[in-house]
Specification:
Structural class: mainly alpha
Largest sheet: none
Number of strands: 0
Helix content: 55-70%
Amino acid sequence: MVSKDQSIGGLILLICLVVGILYVALLFFPGVLGAIGVQAADADVRFWVIAVPVFIAFIAIMAIGGWIGWTMATTPPPKPIEDITSEIEEKKEETATETQPEETKPAEEPSEEAKPAEEKKPERKRKS
């Protein structure tokens, strides 16, 4: 059984093949139109066979460019990276303080008397 997507794909393939064959036939053999009863000069047929796809492609490219320009003009600028990083740091700090139990939360700085004596590093002897 063929799925719906496969049948649509097959239809698109068939249409593209028919249009491609007609395009090549009209471009290189413009007299083909006479076989189906359409009278036209060969030069006119070749001109329109080339002009119509070029016109469609040009309009499509201009539409895509216009869409990109509209999107850029109406999209607000992004936040500076500094703002984003500061927000992330604030969130980390908030979640860290919320997840710590009351007993393990950092206490306020102890007074001068309660601080342990700082170890002094031995001084290096100067070369004389």
